[in-house]
Design goal:
By secondary structure, this protein is α/β, with parallel strands linked by helices. It has six helices and seven strands.
């Protein structure tokens, strides 16, 4: 029997959704019997695989690497889930949108005592002018809000998807 392929990915956010995913505790063993976890930041796999059945994507789209990554994930995934409030609404990550990008870069990098004198650039992907929700870039099949969603909600949500049923949408979608 071939198990459905599950992936999780992390864009611009705090990793709290993945921490909740790990909080599944003993349900991780149950989940291991239901899916093939084929990609995740908790694994040492560098490239997003092809033919993924379900992808939980945490975080907002904040830089050029995120933009390329979410497009690749969407192209290789049957069911894409915006995982957590940053993915669904932009949340804390999108607070940067309140300020001009140059002001943010100056405050965070150029004027900061912490990084004064350190070389900037090269390893840091360029920031987008605005932080975007995942659905601003690619079609999203389901929304799993929460900051972060609880382990119980994540497990219940995945069980519905794996059973071929659409999870209840009420209370799981913010206005566009």
């Amino acid at each position: 029997m071939t198990l459905p392929r599950l992936a999780t990915a992390w864009l611009g956010g705090c990793s709290g959704c993945h921490m909740s995913f790990l909080d599944l505790d003993e349900h991780l063993i149950d989940l291991a019997g239901m899916v093939d976890l084929c990609y995740s930041p908790i694994m040492d796999i560098k490239e997003f695989p092809v033919a993924v059945d379900i992808a939980l994507v945490e975080g907002a789209v904040a830089n050029t690497d995120h933009l390329a990554q979410i497009r690749l994930i969407r192209s290789r995934t049957r069911i894409l889930v915006a995982f957590g409030d940053c993915a669904v609404t932009g949340n804390v990550t999108a607070l940067r949108n309140l300020f001009p990008l140059d002001d943010v870069l100056c405050r965070a990098y150029r004027d900061s005592d912490v990084v004064a004198g350190l070389p900037v650039g090269g390893d840091v992907p360029p920031l987008l002018d605005r932080v975007l929700r995942i659905e601003d870039v690619v079609p999203v099949d389901h929304f799993l809000p929460g900051c972060p969603p609880s382990a119980a909600v994540i497990f219940s949500f995945l069980k519905y998807l794996l059973a071929g049923r659409a999870p209840a949408a009420e209370g799981r979608r913010f206005g566009s």
